Amino acid sequence: MLTLKLHPNLIECGTDEAGRGCLAGPVTAAAIILPDDFSNNILNDSKQLSEIKRNMLKPLLEDCSLTHSVAHVFMEEIDSINILNASILAMQRAITQLKPQPEHIIVDGNKFKPYHNTPHTCVIKGDGKYLSIAAASVLAKTYRDEFMEKIHEEFPMYNWKKNKGYPTVEHREAIRKYGITKYHRKSFRLLPEQFTLDLK
Q1: pTM score of the predicted model
Q2: Angstrom distance (rounded) from CA 133 to CA 145
Q3: pLDDT tens-digit profile, the chain (200 residues)
Q4: DSSP SS3 for 101
Q5: Which of 136, 173, 143 is nearest to 158 (CA)?
Q6: How far is residue 67 from each of residues 41, 132, 165, measured CA to CA in Å?
Q7: Pair 88, 111: CB distance under 8 Å
């Protein structure tokens, strides 16, 4: 059973990202503040949920949240500042859009940077421990998946509709056959034989 909050007496948001390990597309983060009486028996770490359950939870979470937000950081910025910094930036951009602003932030993982003067706590595997982080993980994942399904129409040969940009065998074979697109992260090792790949 997941816990709602780390600090029950504070306005607390949970934040998480999706797409950190992908070869293409943005890294996407969500931040959400849930009401104190929120409960849900299905909600869990998005990776533990089926796509059907994630898509079912998305509107429910949006409707019942006090405030929520989603932010993308795109490929050029990822290549410029690296994926860790891009993940943190996406989470902070999502938090910036929350109204009201949180008094405390719980973050999935073990890395974050100070956000103004708001205290934060990093929680390893937090999306399996706190409802607000789990909710953020579901929103981040569903919004990112929607983006990848949209750009799949532009470049169907990579099958992003299915692999969502992750480094599957199929995705890497498509890169080997067709090269890269404007959506690929050029700073990532896209193929094992990366040194022979023309990234211009």
Answers
A1: 0.93
A2: 18
A3: 899 999 999 999 999 999 999 999 999 999 999 999 999 999 998 999 999 999 999 999 999 999 999 999 999 999 999 999 999 999 999 999 999 999 999 999 999 999 999 999 999 999 999 999 999 999 999 999 999 999 999 999 999 999 999 999 999 999 999 999 999 999 998 887 654 445 54
A4: coil
A5: 173
A6: 21, 11, 29
A7: yes
